[in-house]
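Fig. S4 source data, part A: sequence.
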Amino acid sequence: MAETKSRSKRLMTTGGLIFLALGVILYFAKEPMGLNRKIYDLPVFLIIIGICFAVKGFMAKDKTEEEAALAGKTFTEFLTNNAILIAMLVLVVVICILQPRFMQIRVALDILTQSSTKLIMALGICFALLIAGTDLSAGRLVGLAAVISASMMQTATYANRFFPDLPQVAVWIPIVAAVVACMVCGALNGFLVAKYEMHPFIATLATQVMIYGACSLYFDMPPNNSQPIGGIRPDFAQIGQLRLFSGLWKGFPGISILIPISIVICIIIWFILNKTVFGKNVYAIGGNREAAVVAGINVFRNIMFIFILASFLYGIAGVLEAARTAGATNNYGNGYETDAIAACVVGGVSMSGGIGKVGGIVMGVLIFTVIQYGLQFINVSPMWQQVIKGVIIAVAVAIDLTKYRRK
């Protein structure tokens, strides 16, 4: 019994220690052996992976004989459920072989930075997916928040100011204005879905068109006249461009401030979904709306809050995107919602509602970013990148539907 119980823990811990030892050996041997330009930061990655596996193996709970037998029977199921992740790992190995420069800390930090705003947006859209809906207005809300915040955050000496007579306001004022504007649109989405039982696809499609039109009208106001918004104040740009621990050691580029911001938001959303009554209500409504009504859940209020909370996250993502790029146009966020929905589905959020975890969403966003960044890194044609992305989405949805039918 004890042998069966500890086997999986031992395998994971041993595997982690092997990775750790290999990473340490390569780290100290790469310079004497002249491998610096061949393996770059691979030893550091191996050390990190080794530590993660070893800690996870040490912290893992023991399995009974029955659970171990069940795990063996469902090994094929495990491969099916993680097919996209396995394919990504294979692709990463191929990219590293073709272009060893991909094995750099700088590249990994770039991937995490690019994933940050996408992750915040995906965390917002997951709420609509969890109630078996969707939110097509998400990308346009990101653009609305970017335009509103950037238009109020230009330097006093910039020649083409959006508001020539606007005084230099505190940084938090444009941020609050942009996020509140998004939340008002989110409330409209929620009202249409909750009050009239309109399908979220139709409701958010209608608001998507309205939001883009309103944002374009705002963007076209004189004296701007649809010119890209530039001349962003440094104190606002720092919100998206600040790098922490830069120069901590030689060659270290620093960690983008967007990464810890997205981590904090992940923790908050995880807490909301797993530790609050509202989170349990979201899963209940997505699992069986009629049963949720019978159980006394206020569906109208919860759906309203779902779309308002989601739009709040879109607003934060839009503000951070404007700060990161130090500018904005009315086309910011165009198509972002499809990538966010795809990342959620790849991460295990069911289109049928009621199933999904924050950890899976994080993994889905990272998978998409790694694939996109990696294909660009080896100069794959953008047209082929779209084909590959489409295949991934189709396969992920097919796997999702297969799992749902089994259940």
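Fig. S4 source data, part B ends here. The chain has two domains: 1-63, 74-406.
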